[in-house]
Design goal:
- The chain contains three helices and no strands.
- The longest helix has 20 residues.
- The protein is an all-alpha fold and 73 residues long.
- Helix 1 runs parallel beside helix 3 and helix 2 packs antiparallel against helix 3.
């Protein structure tokens, strides 16, 4: 797995956290995931970092939809 992919995915998560567009409790959860993803990347576990960051991004996407919004599913 490319370090660039891990870096790009973490950067996207950083942008979401910085946007302040989500409820504070969600942002706090995303910050924890961001720390975990950075730690995994620093340890050389790029795939794990990508997985953590992608899961957090999915959480952010779901939170931004709000309750009762099933999207295109």
């Amino acid at each position: 797995m490319s370090e660039d992919l891990a870096t790009d995915t973490i950067r996207k998560l950083e942008d979401v956290v910085a946007s302040n567009a989500l409820p504070e409790h969600t942002v706090e959860l995303l910050r924890v995931s961001l720390t975990q993803a950075r730690t995994a990347q620093a340890a050389g576990h790029d795939q794990e970092a990508v997985t953590i960051a992608n899961q957090a991004l999915q959480t952010a996407e779901n939170a931004s939809r709000g309750p009762g919004d099933a999207g295109d599913q």
